[in-house]
Structures are given as C-alpha cells and as structure tokens.
Amino acid sequence: QVQLAESGGGLVQAGGSLRLSCAASGRTFISNYAMGWFRQAPGKEREFVAAMSQSGGNTYYTYSVKGRFIISRDNAKNAAFLQMNSLKPEDTAVYYCAAKGRYNSLRYYTGFNEYDYWGQGTQVTVSS
Fold it and tell me: pLDDT category, 56, cuts 50, 70, 90?
C-alpha cells in the first residue's frame, strides 16, 4: 500500500511563499514513482499543477504557476516538494500530491486519472 502525506499548507499573504511536502511512508520509495501535484478550489474540479518524471529530469507546470512554482524530490528524505513563490489569491485550494507507479521514466504525467496514489491534501489559503 502506497501512502502519501502532504504537509506545509497554511495561510499566507499574497506575494508570500510556502513549501509543500509529500512524504512517502512504509515501503514506498518516492524514487520509484513519477510524481505530480494537483489542486482543487471550492466549487471547481481538481486541476493539474506540476509534474516530475520518475527520472527527475523532466518537469512540467500548468501555465498559471510557471515561473512561480518548483516541483522537486529528495530521494534521501523519501519526499517530494512543491515550492510556491509569489503566491496569489487564485492559488487558494487544497493541494494534493500523487504518484504513478507504471511509467516511462522520462515522461511526466498531467492527467488526473493517470496517477495511482494520492495523499489526503493540504489547504493553502492566500489572502489579498
């Protein structure tokens, strides 16, 4: 059973930064998965934010966060991260990390239904 747990969310003023973490537990090793971050705002569908290939060499971002957010992973810590800078009120949402166990090691994945495992989410609120 793959278990992921997000943390690092909170309330921040516009222009501020947060760093979300996605920790894997048990016999789950982040290095074995392609990773993604998604978010869901109230009344809206879950949307893609950022993705990283299993190799770690390829990343992709949705246009609205490009240049502000950075996805990364630390295999030694068995965790993935989403560094969020220059936050805007429209970034307010519950953020979820996801892992994909069957992959092309060089590919990133942007589809919600492409991922196999999900964390429980962490709330990010950006005040204006």
Answer: confident
Torsion of CA 45, 46, 48, 51, to 10 degrees: -170
Asked if pLDDT for residue 27 goes beyond 90, the answer is no
pLDDT of 127 > 80? The answer is yes
First to last CA, the chain: 40
> DSSP letter string over the chain?
--EEEEE--EEEETT--EEEEEEEETT--GGGSEEEEEEE-TTS--EEEEEE-TTSS-EEE-GGGTTTEEEEEETTTTEEEEEE-S--GGG-EEEEEEEESS--TT-----GGG-SEE---EEEEEE-
What is the signed CA dihedral for 9, 11, 13, 14, rounded to 10 degrees? 50
Q: How far is CA 63 from CA 4, 8, 67, 100, 104, in A?
A: 26, 23, 9, 22, 23
Residue 87 CA, chain-centre distance (Å), reads 15
> Which residue, chain included where needed, has tokens 């390829």?
58
